[in-house]
Amino acid sequence: SSLSGTAMVIVMVMASLVVERSVAIDLCGMTQAELNECLPAVSKNNPTSPSLLCCNALKHADYTCLCGYKNSPWLGSFGVDPKLASSLPKECDLTNAPTC
């Protein structure tokens, strides 16, 4: 779907932040905590439904910025399920989320 690119970008950015856990980051309009909040919803191991905090954070994300991470090779190396990532905007009922 057209939202799948957006979801993948979000997940790639979240995965990149795992490396920087010791540094406070505000990236693409989302804090490190907000990005990390979405990670369990796209995990290959025991995924959960996206939390309200995750979905609320996605509502104010800078998608133009996030799309800059679209081709990051890190997705798989952080245990992220691409199918779950693709469905994240839908799971959060973000029908108006911009796409990459």
TrEMBL record:
All copies of domain Bifunctional inhibitor/plant lipid transfer protein/seed storage helical, residue ranges: 28-100
Gene Ontology molecular-function annotations: fatty acid binding
InterPro entries according to UniProt: Bifun_inhib/LTP/seed_sf, Bifunc_inhib/LTP/seed_store, DIR1-like, NsLTP-like
GO biological process, one term: systemic acquired resistance
The species this protein was found in: Arabidopsis thaliana (Mouse-ear cress)
Gene3D superfamilies (alphabetical): Plant lipid-transfer and hydrophobic proteins
Record protein name field: Uncharacterized protein At5g48490
Domain of life: Eukaryota
Pfam family of the protein (one): LTP_2
Record key words, sorted: Signal
Signal peptide annotation: 1-24
